[in-house]
C-alpha cells in the first residue's frame, strides 16, 4: 500500500521515497493497542492460557518492531543513519538492562512495600524519577518516551507494590492525562478531508488493509501454530486493535513532517474503527469457539 500511495501529495510530504512510505505504512498498520489488549485478555480470564500468553507476547514484540520501523524512516528521511543505529541498538540495550537489572531492583520495592504495609511517598517519588529517566533515555535514543515507560511497567513484578502504584496513579492518568492527549490528537484530525476524491480511495484501502493484513495475518499465523480456526480468528480480532499506540505513532509522524494532515486523519479513523470492533469481534468469536461441539476425548481432557 505504501508503494502505491507514496507519490500522492495529499498523504505524504515531499521527499518520502516509495520504500520509506511502505515502511511507515507497515509500522502504522502493524502496531497494536497493547494496554487495551492486556485488559481484554485479563478480564476474559485467558491471561494464563496459551492463547492469552501468545497474544500478549506477539503484541509486545510487534510494537517494538513498529517503533523500530518508524525510527528507520525518520533516520533515512533525515539522511542520518546514526538515528536508526541509536534507536535499535539503544532500545535493545535498554530492554536487556531493564530485564536483568531493573526487574530484580523492583523486587526490592515489593519487599519494602510489605515491610511498610504500603507505598511511602518517597518510594513513589523514586519510582516516578525512574520512570522519567527511562522515558528520557529512550527519547534520547530515538525510540521515544512511550517505549521506555512501557518497558519500565512491563518488567515490574506483579504484587502489592504494583497494585498500590496503579491505585494511586490511575485516577490521574485516566481522568486527566489520557483525555488531554485525545483532545490534542482530535484538534489535528480533519475528518472532512476524507470525503475528497484524493483521499476517499486511500481511506477505504487503509481500512481494508488494516483488517486483512493485520487481523488476517495474525489469524493465519496462529492457525499455522496449531490453534483452531475459531481461536485463530479471536487472536486476529484482538491483535487488530490499535488504539492509543496508533495515535502516539501518527502524532510523532505528523510532528516530524513525514505525513500530511490527510493521512493523519485516515490513520486516526482506522485506529478508532479497529479498536471499537476489537472487543465485540473477540467476544463473538470467543463465544462461538466455546459453543462448538468437541470430540469425546477433548471433553474428557477438559
Number of helices: 13
Alpha carbon gyration radius: 21 Å
Low-confidence stretches: 294-302
Q: Biggest β-sheet: count, sense, barrel?
A: none
First-residue to last-residue Cα separation? 44 Å
Percent range for helical residues?
over 70%
Portion in beta strands: under 5%
Number of strands: 0
On the 0 to 100 scale, the average pLDDT is: 84
Helix-strand makeup class: mainly alpha
Q: Give the H and E element order.
A: HHHHHHHHHHHHH
Shape: globular
Question: Care to describe what's here?
Answer:
There is one protein chain. The protein is mainly α and 302 residues long. Helices cover 79% and strands 0% of the residues. It contains 13 helices and no strands. It has helices spanning 2-5, 18-30, 34-43, 50-77, 81-116, 121-141, 145-154, 160-187, 197-224, 229-239, 243-255, 261-291, 296-301. The longest helix has 36 residues, at 81-116. The protein is globular and about 65 Å long. Residues 294-302 have low confidence and may be disordered.
